[in-house]
Amino acid sequence: MAEPQQADGVKAAGARKEEKLVKLRPTLFVGVGGTGMEVLMRVRRRVLNALWAGGVRVDSLADFPVAQFIQLDLDHGAVIDSGRAQAEDLQFDLVKFTDDEKLVESFEIEKYSRDDDSLARFPHIQSWSPLTPKKIRDLGIDPAKGAGQIRSISRLYFFDKYTKIRDKLRLKLKSLKAGLSRDAQLKQLGLELDQSKFRIVVVGSVAGGTGSGSFLDMGWLAGWIARDEVGSADVELMLFMPTGFSGANKDRTEANGYAALMELESAMRGYSDYVKRWDSYDKPDLPLKPYDEVYLVDSGNLARQHTAKMNDVYHMVADALFEDFASADFANKKRSIAVNQRQHKITPFSPPVPAGRFGDMKLTYSRTYSAFGQAVLDTQLKFRRDERAHALAAAMLKAFFGVAGSDIGANRATEKKRDEFMATHMHLRPAPFSDFPEFSSKDVALKRSSGEFLDYFVVEELLQDRQGMLVAGVQQRVNARLEDIKTGFAREEWPTQIRETVRQLERDVMRDQDSGADTTEDRIARRRREIFEKTREVIAQQLFAYLDNKDYGGLEYVLSLVEQIKDRLENAETGICAVLDLNAARYDEIKEAVRTYEYERLMSNLAETRGGMLGGLLGGGERQAQMVMEQLATEIANGLKFHLRAKAAREAATLMRELSRWLGQKTGVDASGAPLWNGLVGEFQDGRNAVLDMLARLERDVAILRQDLRSEHATLLAIEAAERPLPTPSAGTLREWADEAFKDLGGSRALFPMLTDPDDRPALLRKVVRMAERQMDIAGSESGEAGEPLIEALEQRSPAERQRIFSDLLQRAMPWVDGNLGRDFTPVSDQYKCFIGVARADEFSRKFKAELETCVPAGAGITANQVAVVETGVPGRAVCYAELSGIPLTVLRGLEAWRTSYRKESENIPTHTHIDSTRFSHPLAPSTDELNRLADDFKYYLLAVMLGILSRSTQRVVPPGQYQFAVARGDVRRIGNERAFRLNGLPATYREQIVGRVQQALDDVDGPRCCALAALASYYATAVYTAQLVDDETGAQQVRTGFASAIAAEAARELRERALRKGASDAELERAEFRLTEPDVLRQWAEPVPDSDADAYEWEVRAPESANQPRLKFVMRQDAQSAAAIATLLGGQASAPAAGGFGAAPAPAFGTAAPPPLPGAPGVPPPVVQHAYHLAVAGQQYGPYPAAQVLQMMQAGQIDPAQTQVWRNGFAGWMLLSQCAELQAPAAPAGMPPPPPPPPL
């Protein structure tokens, strides 16, 4: 780009004030899939079409170092934004993604599916891929046509092209980082780089295949690469919802959308473990979340504005992205709110739940999402002004170069001008030649030169050099030589000496190939070369002078002149070169006639003066010899003169041919049949073509501007504004403007190389466009045009019309997400920010702010306090940008329908991009009925685990953590993992059986064990699913009870109630809660479930205090020993078990005798004693238990009297329970006499 020409001399109020540099963050745009391409193509068009500071327009995206682009897709046919035809797109070659920007390549999917073991060769892919080789073969996808709406195909493509994607990201970030080296170029655009933080924007949709399957990987990869390359970057996602794509297989797009949102929800919580690496070599240190900002985009907005055309939404997003480059104040405002609005994204969203059942339970959903909208109210005067400027620039070029005029003949050179030019600058002034020698004989008949003929001054020019006139010099040499002969030799020797002298003179004059000496002919040839160089320079200077001469008409005139000169030179019949060749032949003919007739006659006469007829008859031989010698001198000189003239004529013809070749030769014809030239004509022709190309470029720009004027989309509101017509300047005025625009370049001779240089031509174009804009500014200031067009247009409307306009503007600018804000989630007004960017913001605000505030849409949650008017410096338009921050996915209206499609399509294709779909969570908050159903199923699942009805499988399968259920004897089946039950409840196939067995088992347990189950469920609620702690705004930690913890607590409450109904006391329940779940005690009656700590969601459960204390589930053992242990631990006395629990004296060790009991006090009856018995089973001690409980355990079969040892205080030692008489029947109180026997019958 050339430096912009500053408009000076414009001092009116309407003159453009000097703009400050816009400080922009370097931005990398990444388009994934067709949606990404659609949006970014529109961003690229806006960059190319924008007029930057000083009227500079970039000629290619390479000239805009603030932005870089990457396109990732499988579809080779997606090359242009929809609504345009490639053949009719005037900017396609400029706007299309270049090879270094796009990654749209062939994909050899067969290497992953050739046989059933193909995928095993790529373990980093096999670990996640839901596509088996057989499934890939069955789907029959042609990757060249896209991912076939199979998301996992796209992710496979991402992994396959990982190294290229990684390297392309690095290359583009390096290019952005190197922007400082292009500081001058940035300043021409009125921009400067803010390298404090870079920005990466990923654009895609959840509905299709490529974008939906790769946007998460792209976010993580971009964040990792950015951290390494530029230190810090905000990675943002513009994610389109499936609503607008329902025409492309509605069920599939909705299913893909729902699956993608499930994955996104888990990823944005930061616990997804979605990806660890993309190949076998790199070990990336990935950020916790893939994106810093996620913007949801839909075909409807929060003001209930909807569009059936996705092009409307593509334009809206592209406008919003591009606007960040357009105005310093507006861009800075948007950046400032991003920091402030993050406070609304910290605390997760918890939809309301029935408190009667769930109490303070919190369902958790991420609030890291935002939505935005933008609408533009445009007078479109800028487009019309640009159109006018380009039309004036084209007229200036035509006037300056004299091309593309309507009257072609008016600019052509005449024959007179041609002849004058050739005579003046090419030595071709014609002159008749009549200097013929006098022949003594009438027999001399000259065939070619029988009379006067036309010669050219160039011959005379060739016959003179720095040493003088060549012909005169030859005459002098001839005279001198003959005088030497006359004085130095006897008269009889004269003929011999003369002939020798003539031969010597001819050697001096004529070039002999055997001689190396310099000749007169050589001097003529040198003179020709000298004249060629000088004449060529003179011609070029004069022709370029003609280009700059307003009186001649410019380039068309020069081209016509040169073409006529060439024709005049080269015409086979009448051309000057042919005439010069003929003249050379004429001179040769005269020379030969002189030699043949005059020279030989005179030599014969000289010989006769020695005594022949002349000497003898006439006498006076000496006198006659002197006369003959004088005549010989003349004729010898004539012979040499005409030889030199013939040589000069031939050299002149050669000179003219060289000049003609230098002027140019025809090399062919172009597509229209016009001749193609090389040489100077070719240079002028290239210049004319370059000018025509510039005119075509201007016409194309005008066509693009008109196309933009005609373009319509839902968020662009046009408002008519009065435009003052400008008078059409005359051709002379246009030429003067062009002269002024190009005055610093040195005229046409400097311009022409620039015209043909692709790098310099845009600078010339910008000069004339800026000159046109400057003249328009001057004309506008002279006519008093100083107002702001948009303000004037609005003032011309009635208040009712303005209200309609402002209402449309604000409604269409509301965030484009189709959300239900009145169901579970209602944003506070501070979550909204709305900016209206205009020129002369203070004046606009003063006149219209009050009216604007009355038009704020109702029902969306935004208030007038959130609407601010900010300065953009762009006249004639208002940009309204609104953003809502901190919303959960569950507000999306279509989620329920999308989930239905998801369930349907999941039966046909893998909808997820990971083989383990249970690692993801639903983005939709359940209804009350669904929540109750899920809660019931989860409660039965927990009870089934505690009772051992469900056992955790030890097989290593995916998804991991599978639980199995004995459907029948010997028929044990995996039924899913805990997260699957959380997502969808118990499998319908097994639910009834599982519930039945749980209920039966609960009916069979006795009171103590029911107390134990209640304690175990409480343990689940507090120690397995330990509630998260969340910091509030004061820093205090608040308990956030999750679903699993709440349901486990509910199960505990129900089990406590059941235990009471089974006869347990509150004291026993309290003891169970206190005693049974102590870490060492718990393992006496329950078994841990290995690896079950991985069942819970990390974001719902507090991390364990130590890695050595995982939060494992426990299952209650069903053996007698466990029952005995439970009964002992629940005993009323505080006797401690042998392991060191509660109470007083421990039981004696096996095989030892106890001391004898102390006798009672004399005279006092013994007290009633309630003995406590210690039991031992297989070497493990339990108790103490009261006698009633021991009897109850024997009656229930929980202990075997033949295998159980018993001891109490007073026994000599341990004995078998079967041998303990006092425990064989109900124990009577001590000291009580046995009841009397019944009377006889």
UniProtKB/TrEMBL annotation:
Q: Which InterPro entries match?
A: GYF_2 (IPR025640), Tubulin-like (IPR025904), Tubulin/FtsZ_GTPase_sf (IPR036525)
Question: Domain of life here?
Answer: Bacteria
Organism lineage: Bacteria, Pseudomonadati, Pseudomonadota, Betaproteobacteria, Rhodocyclales
Q: What protein does this entry describe? A: Uncharacterized protein DUF4339
**Coiled coil as a keyword?**
yes
| tRNA-binding in keyword set | no
Under the heading Pfam families, the entry gives:
GYF_2, Tubulin_2
Start and end residues of each GYF domain: 1173-1223
Q: Which Gene3D superfamilies match?
A: Tubulin/FtsZ, GTPase domain
Q: Which ranges form a coiled coil?
A: 688-715
Question: Keywords of this protein's UniProt record, alphabetized?
Answer: Coiled coil
Q: What species is given as this protein's source?
A: Azoarcus indigens
